[in-house]
Each structure stands twice: as structure tokens, then as C-alpha cells.
Write a structure and sequence with these properties.
The protein has three helices and nine strands; from the N terminus they run H-E-E-E-E-E-E-H-E-E-H-E. It is α+β, with helices and mostly antiparallel strands and 162 residues long. A hairpin with a 2-residue loop joins strand 3 (38-43) and strand 4 (46-52). The longest helix has 14 residues, at 2-15.
């Protein structure tokens, strides 16, 4: 019985979304903790909702260059929104990587997003979280990106921590 309980808790941890239904206005920031594989939306400085995420295939350390498969670390803004034929994923929010601080450290690359799943992988749903698989983006399910996309405006800050 103890083993089943531990397995159940592990599955909830991997597959679960932890909602906080206290709405305090509009989303004013996003925070991603890479080590915890979480993306948190804040409204008026209060945690509104938390999502489990997948990251770049090599998530430790900041992104240094294009194709290193790392998710950046730092303070950014959501600078774009795309859906439909404008994205290979369900929907996405663009992140302004590299920003001025990254460029000062000769970090290169771009096209970093918070995105859903592409048509080929949509059927996996929450199971995509079982491993890190992106080229450096922050991935959520299609249902989750629908919600995030509707709540987050362009120029919203996003902080990505190790």
C-alpha cells in the first residue's frame, strides 16, 4: 500500500496543475522555477495559478547560444503572441531572449516561447512532462496554453530562475 501511495503522489506531482482560484485582477507577472519545473502566474503580486512544465533538453544553466537546448535564466518580457498557422505549436507567448543583459554576455539565439504542444504530440497531454524535450522553451499542455494565452498580455514580465 505504501508503494502505491508513493507512486500516486509522484504521478500527481508530474501530471498535476495546482490552481489557486483567488482572482485579484489581471496577470502582472510570470515566474518559472526551472529546478521545480513550474510556471506561476501572479496577479497583483499574489500567486494565481501554477503549472507543471517541460523545459529545454539540457535545462541546467542559462542559455548561451542557439541550439544548446537550454532554457534561459533572467528577467524578460512577453513580447509576442502567436496562434494558428503562425506557430508550429498550438499557441505561444514569445519571450524577448536574448535581452540586453544576455547580449552583454554574448549570449545568442532566440525564438524562446511559452508554448503548447504541436499536432504530432498533442495526444500526450500532461505526459509530455515526464521529460524535458524542448529546444529551450517552456512547454505546457494545449489546454493550459489556451488559458495562459487568454490571461497574459504582451509586455508582461517573466522571470526565469534556475
Amino acid at each position: 500500500m505504501k508503494i502505491l501511495f508513493i507512486i500516486g503522489c509522484a504521478l500527481i506531482s508530474v501530471l498535476g496543475v495546482v490552481p489557486n482560484n483567488t482572482w485579484a485582477g489581471e496577470i502582472d507577472s510570470l515566474v518559472c522555477f526551472k529546478s521545480q519545473r513550474t510556471l506561476i502566474l501572479f496577479s497583483n503580486g499574489v500567486e494565481f495559478k501554477k503549472y507543471k512544465v517541460s523545459l529545454g533538453k539540457h535545462p541546467k544553466g542559462p542559455k548561451e547560444k542557439e541550439k544548446d537546448e537550454k532554457t534561459p535564466e533572467g528577467k524578460y518580457i512577453i513580447n509576442d503572441k502567436a496562434e494558428g498557422s503562425n506557430t508550429k505549436f498550438h499557441k505561444n507567448l514569445g519571450i524577448n531572449y536574448p535581452n540586453a543583459a544576455d547580449k552583454a554576455q554574448n549570449r545568442t539565439g532566440g525564438d524562446i516561447k511559452v508554448h503548447g504542444l504541436g499536432p504530432k504530440y498533442a495526444k500526450w497531454g500532461k505526459l509530455h512532462r515526464l521529460r524535458d524535450w524542448t529546444d529551450g522553451c517552456i512547454a505546457v499542455t494545449n489546454d493550459e496554453i489556451e488559458e495562459i494565452y487568454s490571461l497574459v498580455k504582451i509586455n508582461t514580465p517573466i522571470h526565469i530562475y534556475p
